[in-house]
Write a structure and sequence with these properties.
The structure is a single chain. With 640 residues, this protein is α+β, with helices and mostly antiparallel strands. The protein is built from 23 helices and 22 strands. A hairpin with a 3-residue loop joins strand 13 and strand 14. The longest helix is centred in the C-terminal third of the chain and has 35 residues. Bound molecules: adenosine-5'-diphosphate and magnesium ion. The site of adenosine-5'-diphosphate has 23 residues, from helix 12, helix 14, strand 14, strand 15 and strand 16.
Length: 640
């Protein structure tokens, strides 16, 4: 991972109380209250059977049990009513409890309050657990660090590490915070950050991340970020924040709930008032009205989607895939097109310089010019050129007016001469390099020209290798009936060579950033969502326009990662399959839950209206369907 992917994603909000996540179920008050009330109610039931208790004491006990079991959920429902002017499912249940009390159905009221409280407690607890499951990553970071102070080793709390200090990590130890290796090399297991289990070898100058394990070397690392700002902390914050970005289904259900719940409440009132006015059995219809209130409360519908999304995002996070909002998972679930950038996405973006053709200039000056200018750019080609030329001790010219043109190349002035390094800009360029670039020269290479004051003065050819998993991944995507297109700023020849090796049929080459954007828009007219995967500045427009933009987290530039909705922390291209499958699963679970909820509602409502089931029955069925939907949602976080 270059620099700090997570940092670049800039989390803004502070997440809520961190310690609150470590509670066990028996420490979770809403649930414990309800269960305690339940146990007490059962006990009271048997005591009342054998001991004669006067009505006043009984009622006092009922009131206590109701208050105890409903304390949390009723408080929340009332707060929502006051703050958000929202009649939620909680209000429906409060109405049902009060209704039962008015009718003198005390034990029904207690039963309802306890059961609803228990179900809500289980749900909230599950939600909190799912939401914060990603936090288990924090436990991976050691609490202490071995610093070197005045040449001596000393153990200090990791949170006291300051930027610039040097710490030591021995074989088998976990790295306490982010830093740069200043001494030694080692295989580092980065699975906690990237989800990738194969250790990567790291040398002096490479970044090391908190929570990753030094498997075999002695490392001295210079702190680059404080303990609280390290990569894992940022990932966690980001993933938690993402869960707040609501999916379309969720927004729809909430909007539906805002209209639906008041209708239920009014209907129940009508069921009580009209028979009363007509003088027909008041108590019969009132009981039905209360059963109806319980049966019609859309709890399963409202609670199951957030649980599903939270579970899905948490799972993705543990896999090294950062999803920036709940909405994207659902969208990924109906992907129709995957658009792929070539350099850096399908290829490793680690190029080697294979040919140098100086024209009217000696080779060393050409290389010095290229080195001095490309050193200033972050493009994978630029990095490769600078790295390859450096050992030949190039001259270092002062560059003025440096400019990067995404998808094209770079410009800069040396003295009064204006240089351009990049792909051929026009037909004139192509013509003037023609005699040097025969088929064997091109052979799938990236061709870069160097121009001095508008005239070609050199040609460079670079070769890049395809990512090892790319071909298999592409085939699997095709098997999912997904349309694939490769979008590249590179030349046609190079583009087709790579596409043929990968088996991609739809190839678009010589694209500028705005051309990539147009292609994304073109595909949006087709069936299914458009997913764009890229890494460069030149992909940023397309990433932002696609239904879901995915950035490569390691090689990717800041701009691309910020424009994208999802980032692959390990640059593992295979992750596209993982995230599409996860999206599909989330979508399926949501659909199942909606169908189940609507089905249960449509059965329970008539049964209560015709008086076929009474209040306790309605309560039990209602809560069961709710818990079923929630446990179904939890599945999104389990492995398949
Ligand atoms: P892709 O779309 O495949 O990721 P880019 O759009 O980033 O590729 O680059 C397209 C072409 O532009 C490259 O093949 C190269 O010829 C040229 N180019 C872009 N940036 C640079 C640079 N810094 N130096 C040299 N050539 C560049
Ligand atoms: Mg690229």
């Amino acid at each position: 991972m270059n620099k700090n992917v997570a940092m670049r994603l800039k989390p803004t909000s502070k997440s809520e109380d961190r310690t609150a996540l470590n509670y066990r179920w028996y420490e979770f008050h809403p649930l414990v209250n309800a269960l305690f009330a339940g146990a007490f109610a059962i006990l009271a039931y048997f005591v009342f059977k054998v001991v004669l208790v006067n009505d006043f004491v009984k009622i006092l006990l009922y009131v206590l049990l109701i208050l105890l079991s409903s304390f949390y959920w009723a408080k929340e429902a009332i707060a929502n009513l006051i703050d958000k002017k929202e009649i939620g499912t909680g209000i429906l249940v409060i109405a049902a409890v009060i209704g039962s009390i008015v009718l003198g159905l005390w034990s029904e009221a207690v039963f309802l309050s306890i059961l609803y409280g228990t179900a809500e407690g289980i749900e909230d607890y599950t939600y909190a657990r799912t939401r914060h499951s990603i936090r288990s990553l924090l436990k991976l970071i050691p609490k202490e660090a071995r610093v070197i102070l005045k040449g001596k080793e000393k153990i200090i709390p990791a949170k006291n590490l300051k930027v610039g200090e040097i710490f030591l990590v021995k074989p088998g130890e976990t790295i306490p915070t982010d830093g740069v290796i200043v001494k030694g090399s080692a295989h580092i297991d980065e699975s906690s950050v990237t989800g990738e289990f194969n250790p990567v070898i790291k040398y002096i100058g490479d970044n090391a991340f908190a929570g990753t394990i030094n498997t075999d070397g002695f490392l001295e690392i210079r702190v680059t970020s404080l303990f609280k700002d390290n990569t894992i902390s940022k990932i966690i914050e980001l993933v938690e924040r993402a869960q707040e970005g609501k999916s379309k289904t969720q927004l729809f259900i909430e909007r539906f709930g805002r209209i639906y719940s008041p209708i239920v409440l009014v209907t129940a009132l009508i069921l009580i008032i009209i028979p009363h006015m007509l003088g027909i059995s008041y108590s019969l219809w009132s009981t039905r009205a209360i059963s109806f209130l319980v049966a019609a409360a859309p709890c399963a519908l409202i609670m199951s989607t957030p649980v599903t999304i939270a579970a899905g995002i948490g799972k993705a996070g543990k896999h090294g895939v950062l999803v920036k909002g709940g909405i994207y998972l659902g969208v990924l679930g109906h992907t129709g097109t995957v658009l792929l950038d070539k350099t850096g996405t399908l290829t490793l973006g680690k190029m080697t310089l294979v040919k140098i053709v100086p024209i009217d200039v000696d080779k060393n000056s050409l290389l010095s010019i290229v080195y001095s200018i490309e050193k200033l750019s972050n493009h994978p080609i630029a990095k490769a050129l600078a790295k390859e030329i450096k050992p030949s001790n190039p001259q270092n010219f002062d560059i003025s007016n440096f400019k990067e043109i995404p998808g094209l190349g770079v410009k800069g002035k040396i003295g009064t001469d204006l240089f351009y390094i990049g792909r051929p800009e026009n037909n004139k360029d192509i013509k003037s390099i023609k005699k040097y670039t025969d088929a064997s020269f091109m052979d799938g290479k990236i061709v870069v020209i160097v121009k001095k004051n508008g005239r070609v003065t050199g040609i460079l050819a670079l070769s890049d290798s395809i990512r090892p998993d790319a071909r298999v991944t592409i085939q699997r995507l095709y098997r999912k009936n997904i349309h694939i297109a490769m979008l590249t700023g590179d030349n046609k020849n190079s583009a087709y060579r790579i596409a043929t090796k990968l088996g991609i049929e739809d190839v678009r080459s010589n694209l500028r950033p705005e051309d990539k954007l147009k292609i994304v828009e073109e595909f949006k007219h087709r069936v299914g969502a458009v997913v764009m995967v890229g890494d460069g500045v030149n992909d940023a427009l397309a990433l932002a326009t696609a239904d879901v933009g995915i950035a490569m987290g390691v090689i990717g530039t800041d701009v691309a990662i910020e424009a994208a909705d999802v980032a692959f922390m390990s640059d593992d291209f295979k992750n596209i399959l993982f995230i599409l499958d996860l999206g599909k699963k989330v979508r399926q679970i949501n659909t199942q839950n909606i169908i189940l909820s609507v089905f249960v509602l449509s059965i329970l409502i008539p049964l209560t209206l015709f008086g076929i089931i009474n209040i306790p029955f309605a309560v039990v069925f209602h809560e069961l369907s709710e818990l079923f939907a929630v446990s179904n949602g939890v599945r999104a976080g389990l492995s398949t």
